[in-house]
Amino acid sequence: MPYWRKGYTSEALALMCYFCFKHLGAAVITSSAFVGNLASRRVQEKNGFQFEGTLRRQIFKDGKWIDLWHLSLLAEEWEKRGFKPIFEKLVPVQQDIK
Predict the structure, then answer these.
(1) What is the C-alpha separation between 72 and 13, in angstroms, rounded?
(2) Contact at 8 Å (CB) between 9 and 44?
(3) What is the second-level CATH architecture of the domain 8-81?
(4) How far apart are the C-alpha atoms of 39 and 44, rounded to whole Å?
(5) Domain limits of the chain?
(6) Is pLDDT above 80 for 89?
């Protein structure tokens, strides 16, 4: 709990979105949170994700069905946000040495 409410998850999600859109060429990123998990939904919304709706009975856990909030972020919406990481270094793919 000492790491809660420090913004680490929001920052990590921002970096994952950057990687998906800039390096993988994704057109859209979708995400879900358990209905009632406001902290998780808020992290996504802070990164520009839009609420799409509630998916009913998506997960069966501990003997009961759980509904999910479904959110998405389009590449063009993300681009408008102008996120740039402070530092970016991708590890190059190693080639076979013969």
Answers:
(1) 13
(2) no
(3) 3-Layer(aba) Sandwich (3.40)
(4) 9
(5) 8-81
(6) no
User: Which carries the bigger pLDDT value, residue 5 or residue 18?
Assistant: 18
Q: How far apart are CA 96 and CA 98, in angstroms?
A: 6
Look at residue 29 and give its three-state secondary structure. strand
Q: What number of other Cβ atoms are within 10 A of residue 91's Cβ? A: 5
pLDDT at 7 over 90: no
Match 């509904």 to its residue by tokens: 67
For residue 30, how many other CB atoms are within 10 A of its CB?
11
Please report how the helices 8-18 and 38-46 are oriented relative to each other, as an axis angle in degrees rounded to 10: 50
Asked if the model's pLDDT at residue 44 lies above 90, the reply is yes
